[in-house]
Amino acid sequence: MSTLSILADNIRYLRMQQTPELTQSKIAEHLKVTRESYAKYETAKSAPPLDVLLAISRYYHISADLLLTVDLRKYPMEELLKLPDNRIILPIKTDHRGENKIEVVPYKASMGYLAGHADPEYIDSLQTMSLPFLHNGKYRAFPVEGDSMPPYKDGTYIIGKYVESITDMKTGKTYLLMTRTGFVFKRLDKINQNSITVKSDNTFYDNYDILFTDLREAWQYAGSFSSQEQEIIDFSNEDVKGMLLTLMNEIKDLKNKLS
């Protein structure tokens, strides 16, 4: 069987497994292609461009390698999602030195992240911040709401470290989880055969399960800050750039006078 045929069978199978069943039109809209183009991918009449293939990979949380080489119909989905080799390419933003920046997902655009999390252009549009003590990993900041995880409440941003695989998650740790329907900030209680059980630190709320197939991203808690206490500065603003440049020149002049 050719690689193109394997891919066609896999994406058709994955789409049909959705509850309720996902239509070709809906997945095509998400991938930003026409329904006619997507239909050709499912029938192996044409191969999707690389950016579309990556978008499919991120949507189903199945690596491009598995999509192209393994007949997914032969294996339970929960086992595939936990494979160590099932790594998903994450779009990130870097500075001029190639170092990762911490993207900040704003409150007003938090739901837009559900649609744009796999889009490099969307990620590039987010404001960023830097924290020198966070390294050796990929970090992103997300807004949280509600009172289920005290002392964190409305106005708090959770900084999370990206978790590549469900097998890397640890019970007892807290995670910012992106599902099909939105964000939750919870403590991991159990890892089950095909789901995870999460709980709130506020005992008023009940524990509940999240299916592996509904989980889009997981970010382990690494820190937090309050938008009411700290303003994220937009360094792309020309006024701010000018102020920083003036300050740098004044410091340079002072050093020259002292030397």
Automatic annotation (TrEMBL):
Keywords tagged on the record: DNA-binding, Transcription, Transcription regulation
Keyword DNA-binding: yes
Record domain HTH cro/C1-type: where: 11-67
SUPFAM superfamilies documented for this protein: lambda repressor-like DNA-binding domains, LexA/Signal peptidase
Keyword Transferase: no
GO molecular function: DNA binding
SMART domains documented for this protein: HTH_XRE
Pfam families from the UniProt entry: HTH_3, Peptidase_S24
CDD domains: HTH_XRE (cd00093), S24_LexA-like (cd06529)
PANTHER family found in the cross-reference section: HTH CRO_C1-TYPE DOMAIN-CONTAINING PROTEIN, PTHR40661
Protein name: XRE family transcriptional regulator
The organism of origin for this protein: Chryseobacterium gallinarum
